[in-house]
Write a structure and sequence with these properties.
13 helices, binds ligand LLP, TIM Barrel, Lyase, Ornithine Decarboxylase, Chain A, domain 1, globular, 2 domains, alpha/beta, 10-stranded mixed beta sheet
Length: 417
């Protein structure tokens, strides 16, 4: 039997898709606070080893209200840009709770972090040299490439032979030379193998490879093992969630062994993004047109790829629910359709050849698991307005947490009128 996520999780609380679009417009990102908090706790308690920090990788979703909740749950954060650092500080994260995991940045960007007390992790010898020249005698972290990568798509595999990230093992002597030359203290090492694994084998292989390298650095305060913890995007087909139990056992054992071998209980950190926010988000949109072309049924919606890029960028699958006059449609003759948006490109497809329950013009579609890399990758392409974001709070009430763009927003920043 098909699973209906929003029904199973009582996702919309006291409200409904129809009421939400009436009050906040369409399309609309909707988040569920209870699910977000639960995911935070799962990551915070991922291992038995202490000290352990789960750093939220906020590139997945930088909504200020969500960041505050993540912080309340006791998580720290990693940032990928000065803008993310700025936003994390505004959300209440302390500088020492933030790691700036940067890639190919200027000395000015490094200074942005350093001046605010945020530790920088550099990921090439050239960046280490640049950092050392500008901030001699300070602390720094270094991103290593353990030679093992994972990910749901080539575009998001961030370690292994073929990526731009991290410093490979053979350059460790140069890392040490450069650090010594500028009197830098390497206090942390980090890695990120890639985004989305549903089974721990490769991740654990990467952890083992990483920790073998870490033993070569004598003054570490922390080792950060990265993110990538996956979520099941095909729940309607019965896909199971990532099983955290074996990760708990294996990772805790590996961490304890490392602490013994290293002779110090360093802090272990991870950097999950998707796992924390993907499943707390549903994207709602309206069906405005249904037509047949050459035997294909196109369901035309207001969910263009400016709103959700993942399907066109990575061929990603998102489960879709249909709501007809406020009722979740679970029965009726299913039909194979292609769901498209309102952007002027033929690639603007949310789902192709998807079997969905009967859909009428005016119905609402819910795109599941849209909380990670949804709004954060949305744009104003075609000068469309980015949607509003609403949070269903713990009492089940909706709260606007970011307003929809306005037409005036589209003209903001132009220097001549
Ligand atoms: N740490 C670093 C250094 C990263 O580059 C990333 C993600 C993460 C942590 C968090 O990874 P996660 O736990 O979310 O898998 N836009 C793509 C995903 C790009 C991930 C980029 N880096 C998508 O929509 O699937």
């Amino acid at each position: 039997m098909k699973q209906y996520y929003t029904q199973n999780t009582h996702f919309f609380g006291n409200t409904s898709p129809e009421a939400l679009l009436r009050d906040y417009g369409s399309p609309l990102y909707v988040y569920n606070e209870a699910i977000l908090r639960q995911r935070c706790r799962q990551m915070r308690d991922l291992v038995g080893y202490k000290p352990f920090w789960a750093d939220y990788s906020c590139k997945a979703n930088t909504n200020l209200s969500l960041l505050r909740i993540v912080h309340e749950e006791g998580l720290h954060a990693d940032a990928m840009s000065p803008g993310e650092i700025y936003t994390l500080l505004a959300a209440g994260f302390a500088p020492e709770e933030i790691l700036y995991v940067c890639n190919n940045v200027s000395a000015e960007e490094m200074a942005f972090a350093v001046e605010r007390g945020v530790l920088v992790s550099v990921d090439s010898l050239a960046q280490l040299e640049l950092y050392g020249a500008h901030f001699p005698g300070s602390s720094v972290a270094v991103r290593l490439n353990p030679g093992v990568g994972v990910g749901h798509h080539d575009k998001v595999i961030t370690a292994g032979k073929l990526t731009k990230f991290g410093i490979n093992e053979e350059y460790i002597p140069q890392i040490k030379e450069t650090a010594a030359h500028h009197n830098l203290r390497i206090v942390g090492l980090n890695q990120h193998l890639g985004s989305l694994f549903m089974e721990e084998t490769l991740f654990m292989r990467g952890v083992d490879a990483m920790l073998a390298l870490c033993l070569q650095f004598p003054n570490l305060d922390f080792v950060d093992l990265g993110g990538g913890f996956g979520i099941p995007y095909k729940k309607q087909d019965g896909q199971a969630p990532l099983d955290l139990a074996p990760i708990y056992d294996k990772l805790t054992a590996v961490m304890e062994r490392f602490a013994q071998d290293y002779g110090k209980r360093i802090t272990f950190r991870i950097e999950p993004g998707r796992f924390l926010v993907a499943e707390c988000g549903v994207l709602l949109g309206r069906v405005h047109s249904i037509k047949e072309n050459a035997g294909i049924t196109f369901v035309g919606t207001d969910i263009g790829f400016n709103v959700l890029q993942r399907p066109i960028m990575y061929d990603s699958h998102h489960d879709i629910e249909v709501y007809h006059q406020d009722h979740l449609v679970t029965g009726g003759p299913a039909k194979v359709v292609t769901v498209v948006g309102n952007i002027c490109e033929s690639g603007d497809k949310l789902a192709h050849d998807r079997e969905l329950p009967p859909i009428c013009q005016g119905d609402i579609l819910g795109v599941m698991d849209a909380g990670a890399y949804g709004y954060s990758m949305a744009s104003n392409y075609n000068h469309r307005l980015r949607p509003a974001e609403v949070l269903i709070d713990l009492e089940g009430h909706p709260r606007l947490i970011r307003r929809r763009d306005t037409l005036e927003d589209l003209l903001r920043g132009f220097t001549e009128r």
